[in-house]
Amino acid sequence: MKSAARPLLPLVAVVLGFSPGALPAEDAAIPEFRPVPAPDSALDSPATGMIDLRLVSEKKNEITDDEAWWSANGLDSPFLEIPNPLLNQPGQLPPVMPGRLEDGRRVVTASLEGDRPFAIYGADFAQGDRVLVFDAELQRVTHALDFSAWISGRFRIQWVQVIEGTIYASYGINGYAREVEGETGYLAAWNLDTLALAWRSEPLVANSRQFLVIRDTVVSGYGFTAEPDFVHLLNRHDGRIVRSIEVASAPEFLIREGDRLFVRCYNRDYVYDLLDLD
Prior knowledge:
Strand order of the largest sheet: 2-1-7-6-5-4
Number of helices: 1
Order of helices and strands: EEEHEEEEEEEEEEEEEEE
Helix content: under 10%
CATH architecture: 7 Propeller
Number of strands: 18
Number of domains: 1
Distance between the termini: 29 Å
Largest sheet: 6 strands, antiparallel
């Protein structure tokens, strides 16, 4: 389809085995939610498989011409179209992905990207504090994750990727960093099965619509009005920033196509070569 924080508290989650497309009844036997403690310090892992970026082009865009950008560059959106009854849009979710949870939370973001498809749910389209992870064959829910112990109010899970047994997530607010004393725009990583927290990044590294995991690198974007705007390269094993590339305005989409990275910012479009892919 073409288309266009707070200090980290424990994540609580439970692994459920649902039948295809089903959600548990309120009286279903659900294991007790298990709190996952945060680590004392970040890991220090070698970045042997890091990639780098080399600028190919930069040009102004028309701000509202997202659709033209996707089409002109032949890019596929990583986002599944979600149901929107107000606009009479049925969406394009696979049958296994519910549009709503039994508590009324609705799907706000869904994707087939990464090793495992996922869907994020929230009380409204500006929120997101529940995540369902599915098997690669889209037959069942394998993990139901509840972030609500520390995602509330304006905070939300923005994007998720499951890669090689690790679940990466970006979270924060859609607003000025000063409104939350700079505690926003984080990336964090957990072991998907044990829910042991591997790392949390520095703040202000990720508020773009999504991020990418390429080899040992997490490629993210952060920016906002009157704030610095960057594309960041992080070591995916410990969350440390390896390189930050300044851009002219806030990154919105980061899309890989072959050996190139296309970055759609608020008023600029960038193309980078992906280096050290071998």
